[in-house]
Amino acid sequence: MQRRPGPPARFPARLPGSDPPAPRPAAAAPAGAAGSAPSALTGLMRARMVQRLAAGGMASAPVLQAMGAVERHRFVDSALGNQAYEDISLPIGLGQTISKPQVVARMCELLLGAEVARAGGLGRVLEIGTGCGYQAAVLSFLAREVYTLERLRGLYDKARDRLRPLRLANVHLLFGDGMPGYAKGAPYAAIIAAAGGDAVPQAWCDQLAVGGRLVAPMALSGGPQMLLVIDKTLHGLEQSVLEPVHFVPLKSGIA
Ligand code: SAH
């Protein structure tokens, strides 16, 4: 079933500035909210995750800062909390997964490479596939506004509950099919897909700003799923195919 996304769930409190938000020390939920591990311990685990990302070649300081700030263990079920900072993907329910930290970092770094981002920071970003909301929270540190769409009601509800205590006022969570993009927020400085299809929907390219960048896993011409980067330039679209990846399928409609 195709349906237009409803109005975004907003998380009032921290008002977005006109510039991309400066890295904040922590996107911590109030004490006693989700998760049971002491914050000193999870802080240490997160610092180690960031060290591993840097040792593995991640050189983007804003990305490392953002990933050091978001409490990843709060986005997975508490039984998996102790694995949240390992470099593995984890189940988030309804057959979906949260990407491993290294992949989240890589995609964020690619978005920051958009021409418009290099010129003056990332403006509006559209994420297709909110999942648990983790990547949207990371993006909230890197972009001025984050529009994120999820097609599964169960995951949308969970992401809303997980994002709310973080009070990230620049994250706009939407329930709906991301195939047609989200025209109301367009043009986007960047579009990121967290699920892989076999062709980039035309709407995504249409909704990209000139100087903007799209990053998506795609299995082109029946080949293996690869990370794809599309830059929209004054002269048209420029596509680069990067490394192989393994994302859950991009599906049409809502459920
Ligand atoms: N970035 C996410 C990863 C989510 S997994 C995180 O941090 O958790 C990919 C998600 O994409 C799944 O939740 C899946 O339901 C969603 N998805 C797949 N096709 C979609 C579509 N057409 N529109 C919106 N969401 C979609």
From TrEMBL:
Transmembrane segments: none annotated. Its main location: cytoplasm. It holds the Pfam family PCMT. InterPro entries: PCMT (IPR000682), SAM-dependent_MTases_sf (IPR029063). Residues 25-34 have a biased composition (Low complexity). Its EC number is 2.1.1.77. Keywords: Cytoplasm, Methyltransferase, S-adenosyl-L-methionine, Transferase. SUPFAM superfamilies: S-adenosyl-L-methionine-dependent methyltransferases. It is found in: Cytoplasm. Residues 1-10 have a biased composition (Pro residues). Residues 1-34 are annotated as: Disordered. One of its GO terms (molecular function) is protein-L-isoaspartate (D-aspartate) O-methyltransferase activity. GO terms for cellular component: cytoplasm. One of its GO terms (biological process) is protein repair. Belongs to the methyltransferase superfamily. L-isoaspartyl/D-aspartyl protein methyltransferase family. This is Protein-L-isoaspartate O-methyltransferase.
